[in-house]
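**User:**
Make up any protein.

**Assistant:**
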Amino acid sequence: MTPTQNVPEDRIQIGQLRSAYGLNGWLWIYSNTDPMSNVFDYLPWYIETSAGWQTVEVKRWKPHGKGLVVSLKGVSDRTAADNLVGVDVWISKSQLPQPSVDEFYWSDLKGLIVLGLDDQEQEVNLGQIHELFETGANDVMVVRATPESVDGEERMVPWHRDVVQRVDLEAGRIYVNWGVDY
């Protein structure tokens, strides 16, 4: 681990160090990537500890059970691993491949204003995307009310081709075929 001042401004979280594994400094890592092993395709990693931002180097990693474990350079015993439990793993967004047409990174969608339809089929502000999550059938946007939205309701809006009409990242908006009363 190397202290660094060059933390990317465009950083995004791709995982979290969850718990120590064994006695030799290995850690369980939770991955936000799909497939989960892709977390190792985006190096270097940046972490923030009580000592400040650091760059970490992956020595080795392996699948274990339903998860992944990792050995980091400079982390050689259980105590050192325990000190990293709960630390988020970040990368520069520029390390990610460009999404294809009509594909988006969830991090780009968070914060977008969601515009739906009222009873008269008029455009109406439903709120702002707070988070997204997967279900078996499709992804779901959690849309939270804002002072400008039509009401104070939180909505779960499916990410589906019949619902999502258009995404305008530059304008910070997403247009959906979703009514106020759904």
